[in-house]
Amino acid sequence: MAFRQVLQLAACGLAGGSAAVLFSAVAVGKPRAGGDAEPRVVEPPAWAGAARPGPGVWDPNWDRREPLSLVNLRKRNLESGEEELASRLDHYKAKATRHIFLIRHSQYHVDASLEKDRTLTPLGREQAELTGLRLASLGLKFNKIVHSSMTRAIETTDIISKHLPGVRKVSTDLLREGAPIEPDPPVSHWKPEAVYYEDGARIEAAFRNYIHRADAKQQEDSYEIFICHANVIRYIVCRALQFPPEGWLRLSLNNGSITHLVVRPDGRVALRTLGDTGFMPPDKISRS
């Protein structure tokens, strides 16, 4: 392949991505001689990058880990040329698959005024036990449990982790519940306490930090558990599948449910399960 073609591929690989989540082109009126308004498209700012591919086009560099986008083409060795480039690309290629299990916390006391008092209900504790048993029954070697620092997520984690001895736990504020982005279509009965502007940036940061293809140094497939909240999980699913993130509120998740995302080495993402609670008896299922 000629080096010029490689550059063209690089440009395609770098096109699109999460910039579209942060900036959308808008049509404005441009006066014409006859007085009518002619729509024109405002170009995105430089920091937003190139335009996102059109509908139905998957962006292979959605996580900014496409090998070609990680190589500094300007520093290539002019003597070795394409042979050296191929070697460097191989150095950045992911080799393993990441299995990401997103767990919604169990039922909790929603009427408590303070967050620290929003502990799990007796039913919630039963749900966490059932979820822990389900995860243990899969027979997988889980690498870690990353959980939200909110009380209900911590308690859910403590119960689930009893069924997965030896799996290390990591707490993070990034996965705390919040309002990721204003839903479309809007709903009048759902008014988040937090500001979209603040929570959205944090939840998007959680997505970028945790949801991506495996590091090139990772040799074996990984199985990771993230215990957090419905809004966070729903937003992550939309972003990972490159669905419009504004549609996150259209998804519904039960307490203690399991959502399974798979991220392949080539960056392709598959949704194995969404909000699975089939392992719970009907009288143990809730969505509070």
Automatic annotation (TrEMBL):
The cross-references to SMART domains, in alphabetical order and at most eight, read: PGAM
Enzyme Commission (EC) number? 3.1.3.16
Q: For this UniProt record, give its keywords in alphabetical order, as a comma-separated list.
A: Hydrolase, Necrosis
Question: Which top EC class is given?
Answer: hydrolase
Identify one Pfam family in the record.
His_Phos_1
Q: Which SUPFAM superfamilies match?
A: Phosphoglycerate mutase-like
- Determine the domain of life of the protein's source: Eukaryota
The similarity comment for this entry is:
Belongs to the phosphoglycerate mutase family. BPG-dependent PGAM subfamily.
Q: What is this protein called?
A: Serine/threonine-protein phosphatase PGAM5, mitochondrial
